[in-house]
Structure formats: structure tokens, C-alpha cells
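Kindly inspect this chain:
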Amino acid sequence: NPFATPLVFGAPLVTPYDVVYDPTSGGYIVTDPGANALWVVSPFGGAELFVADPRFVDLRGIALDSAGTDVLVADRGANTIWRITRDGVVTVVHFGAPLFRPVDVSPVTGSTLEFYVVDEGGPPPNPPPRVLRRTSATAWTVLAEGPPLVIPSAVREESGTSDLLVVDSSPGAVFLLQSPNISTIAGGPQNTGVKDVVQDIFTDDYILAGGTNLWRVPRGTPAVIPIISGPPFVKLTGITQDWSDGTYVVADFDLAAIF
């Protein structure tokens, strides 16, 4: 009998997009492109400013680096991956090509230098939708590009493997990327609008968030099981899991809310 409790509803949030659990503080770090800022949301409710920077344009996906010390953020509008330290120092990790419209970033386990990026791409002659891996300060590997990717929105390492989970909101699918092979785990037109995925730390199931829905996909099956559909959600765009108790925490872009 799941239910959703708002931690923040409205100000100071404007358009919260993605959220990541921070085990160091026990809170949740949120990207907010409408405010050009990142917030820290307390598990007891309320939000405090983490960092705002005039260089931010359209903040999207967020992750902690593999060491759990710094924050990585994909900025779709600035074509930039930002690194932000605990004391709010913002530096450019990467700017420009081969990226075009980066929308999510995820660390490579065991490496503070490498990370994965999902890039929306654009119409020709711009690059198509892609999943890339940064292998050094100047080198990138394209892991997947073009169909079946249409509007990819999130990437995560699958638990216990070197494979990747890739979410695409247009076909409403979760793909398993075993480069160069990509296959559909679950989803379809009924799941159009799915934006993000987290792998449950207790069950290994995939938990999907998008639109007005939270879904569960048991690992190893194509079944998509509704957890919550409809109110109070309007437009979910990000999800994380609190490692301390297994709670899912989601960002609702249109409601300016964290549940």
C-alpha cells in the first residue's frame, strides 16, 4: 500500500528535475533548471541552497562520483558536465564535442575519472541520440547511437554487472546496453514518458519514474507493475533510493515538489 509524502512542495524549488541520495548528509541533492541551482532536501522536509552558478543553463541528470565525494551534473543547455565539491566549488569536467545535449551522467564504478553520459542529440547534421563513456580526460567511446534510441533520458550501471540500463522516454522503454548490443528489458507505448530508473538495493528490481507513474520491473522479467499511478504526481522526471531505509524519492518537475 504505497503512498507519497511531500518533502518540499513549491518554493524555493522552481522546476526540480533530478535527485540523488547523499549518504554523507542523509539528504537528497536536487537539480533545478528553473532556478539554475542545486538544492539539498532534508529527509524531514525542507530545502536549502547547495549551489547556484550563473554558468548553469539547463541542469538535468545528477549523480555522485564513484568515490561519493563530488557531484556530477549534466547541463543540457550548456553542453557541459559539471563537477561540484562538497563546499560548492563548481568546475567544468567536460565542455563541447563529442557531446551535444547531455541529459544524464553516471559514474563508472571504481573510477573517479570515467563516467557515462546520455546525450539527446539533435536533427542532422548534429549527432544522433547516444550513450557515451569518457575513458580519459580527452578520450570518449560511443557505446550506442541512433535507433532504438529516440529520446534517451537516463543511464545507470546495472547492479553486479558492467552492463548499462538506459531509459528512453519516447518508446517508453528500459534498454539493457551490452555494447555494442542493446536490447529492450521492458516497456512500451503504455510507459511513454518514463524518465529515470533506479535499481532497488534490496530486490534488484528496476523502479521507473515518469509522468504520473512509478513502475516496478522485476529483474529478469518484462513485466511492468504499477506502484503508484496518477495523483499526487503530475510530471516525474527523477528518482533515487534512500539507502538507509529503501524509500524511493522522486522529483516532480511540474509540481515543484520532492516526494
The mean pLDDT is 94.
